[in-house]
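Researcher: Quick test of sequence recovery. Tokens follow.
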């Protein structure tokens, strides 16, 4: 009986690369969504923070020692996990609109809270050596994922199409504005 042949190293490498791109794409999209929401929601939460009671609470959070700052940062985010799971459960039961709505609502609220509380607690959190290492590792992972994504031919093709579309739409607006 003949033994099955091992895949050639070149083929195995190509398969890993092909399978890896969807994971990198998904991770990059999740990071992009977080970043896209982070700043505007942080500004919104900063505006809400001008309310006197919220301002007092934020002052307490800012003065918290590192471990308490970690709790202030983690507890609101962890408390939204059941809502995200409920959204996934609804999706699994076929309630697509409800599931996506619940999941995205929890994601937006979590990102808003996370952005504001991280802004308040970052100095204290960075005093925790393990947290600072974790943060740096996440920043390196983010740069790696974006680098892999931007180096992919599909990404580059989409960016070229996007640039052409922007050039065409800009020329069309400028050309039609004089009429």
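Model:
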């Amino acid at each position: 009986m003949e033994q099955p042949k091992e895949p050639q190293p070149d083929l195995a490498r190509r398969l890993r690369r092909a399978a890896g791109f969807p994971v990198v794409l998904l991770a990059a999209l999740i990071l992009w969504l977080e970043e896209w929401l982070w700043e505007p929601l942080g500004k919104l939460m900063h505006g809400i923070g001008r309310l006197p009671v919220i301002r007092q609470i934020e002052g307490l959070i800012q003065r918290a020692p590192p471990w308490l700052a970690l709790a202030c940062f983690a507890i609101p985010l962890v408390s939204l996990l059941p809502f995200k799971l409920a959204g996934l459960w609804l999706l699994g039961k076929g309630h697509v609109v409800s599931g996506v709505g619940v999941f995205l609502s929890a994601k937006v609220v979590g990102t808003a809270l996370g952005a504001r509380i991280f802004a308040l607690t970052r100095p204290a959190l960075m005093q925790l050596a393990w947290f600072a290492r974790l943060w740096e590792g996440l920043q390196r992972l983010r740069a790696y994922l974006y680098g892999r994504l931007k180096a992919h031919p599909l990404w580059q093709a989409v960016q070229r199409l996007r640039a052409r579309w922007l050039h065409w739409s800009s020329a069309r607006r400028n050309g039609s504005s004089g009429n």
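Residues 24-156 form one domain.
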